[in-house]
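Duplicate of #3305? Posting structure anyway:
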């Protein structure tokens, strides 16, 4: 639980939830616009949203929106030892079912009841994600009190995402999810690509295109001209949709040509995919590849600071937060066109390529052949780009404008697409 001070002209609101104990100190001096955010999980294993959603809540607090974030936790230990970044916004975390199927869908009656109660005093309900029970609770709570419902799809309606567990998702949509979204007021997309995916899926509500923000890392040190070992990093969930098998195949013909380089693939494994990648690496005879568990906090920052090139070989991303993290750390990036990072080319800080193994091999070869000073200059241009266009202050103000438009009327924000 975190202290929320948002607007410093008001009394600080504090909420703490742990187990069955709940204490709240309400601000009675000033009526603010209030938003409830719901996400199925904010543990480190939940990927990019475990950073971007709490950080969005903090930026909204800074923009004058009273914000609460509701989620579930797998265990009480996770309540005490969430390795994800901590923010000052309030977080309620409720336990959920121990029945395997229901647990995989994160069924939590306590979360449902808490949301229903909190929704009685809210202006906006904002859901992050689909296909799990907490995402249903958000829609049901908003409908029950007549509050506008905002949904951030978080890449979950893309063709690539829908290809995983398609039967389960079709059933979930037909039986539960479609009805829960019947009163949707606005959809949040983080890129033009995600906007197109939302329309292709058949959702017709207005779409606000607002990117995720990024915190700018500390300035990288001056390039070490005597450096003799270089690192390529791919960071994120180990999942088939990330295209990591293609990355290994693209790396294979280059390993002997560039013996001073190594490839690190780092992240939490899903469904035992780490074993598949290690098996493929062995079959390809790779000697300068490591497949590693996730790292967090200062260790993660140090890893990025020691990286010379970042690669995202993904089949599909609505945003690709790890690209923004790498750029903010001053690291040039190779990304496939599965992620919406065409600006890598226009900003001259990386490569944006098709999905083929051949194109990945060519991009890797090109990047590794450059002088270190050239790669460092590319990384600096990327860092400047992140600071200019992806500040959390801009993101918070933009989302606050959406909330005000939905709850209080007025002109449609310029970044909202009605058709």
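Output from current build:
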């Amino acid at each position: 639980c975190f202290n929320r001070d948002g607007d410093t002209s008001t009394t600080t609101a504090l909420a703490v939830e742990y187990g069955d104990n709940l204490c709240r100190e309400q601000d009675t001096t000033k009526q603010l616009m209030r938003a409830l955010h719901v996400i199925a999980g904010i543990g480190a294993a939940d990927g990019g949203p475990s950073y971007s959603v709490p950080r969005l809540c903090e930026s909204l607090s800074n923009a004058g929106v009273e914000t609460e974030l509701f989620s579930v936790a797998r265990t009480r230990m996770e309540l005490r030892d969430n390795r994800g970044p901590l923010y000052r916004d309030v977080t309620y975390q409720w336990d959920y079912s121990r029945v395997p199927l229901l647990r995989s869908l994160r069924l939590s009656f306590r979360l449902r009841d808490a949301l229903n109660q909190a929704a009685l005093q809210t202006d906006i309900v904002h859901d992050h994600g689909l296909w799990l029970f907490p995402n249903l609770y958000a829609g049901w709570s908003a409908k029950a009190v007549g509050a506008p419902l905002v949904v951030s799809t978080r890449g979950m309606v893309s063709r690539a995402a829908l290809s995983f567990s398609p039967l389960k998702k079709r059933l979930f949509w037909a039986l539960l999810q479609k009805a829960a979204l019947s009163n949707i007021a606005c959809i949040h997309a983080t890129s033009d690509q995600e906007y197109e995916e939302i329309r292709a899926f058949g959702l017709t509500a207005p779409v606000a295109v607002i990117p995720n923000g990024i915190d700018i890392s500390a300035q990288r040190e001056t390039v070490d001209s005597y450096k003799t070992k270089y690192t390529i990093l791919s960071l994120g969930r180990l999942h088939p949709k990330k295209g990591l098998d293609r990355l290994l195949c693209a790396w294979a013909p280059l390993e002997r040509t560039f013996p001073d380089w190594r490839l690190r693939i780092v992240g939490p494994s899903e469904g035992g995919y780490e074993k598949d990648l290690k098996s493929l690496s062995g079959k390809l005879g790779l000697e300068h590849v490591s497949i590693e568990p996730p790292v967090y906090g200062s260790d993660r920052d140090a890893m990025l600071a020691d990286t010379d090139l970042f690669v995202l070989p993904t089949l599909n991303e609505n945003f690709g937060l790890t690209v923004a993290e790498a750029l903010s750390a001053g690291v040039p990036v190779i990304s496939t066109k599965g992620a919406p990072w065409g600006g890598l080319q226009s900003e001259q800080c990386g490569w944006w390529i098709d999905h083929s193994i051949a194109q990945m091999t060519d991009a890797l070869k090109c990047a590794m052949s450059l002088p270190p000073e050239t790669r460092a200059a590319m990384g600096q241009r990327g860092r400047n780009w992140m600071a200019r266009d992806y500040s959390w202050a801009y993101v918070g103000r933009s989302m606050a404008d959406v909330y005000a438009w939905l709850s209080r009327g007025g002109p449609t924000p310029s970044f909202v697409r009605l058709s």
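Confirmed duplicate; merging threads. The mean pLDDT is 86. The chain has 16 helices and 16 strands.
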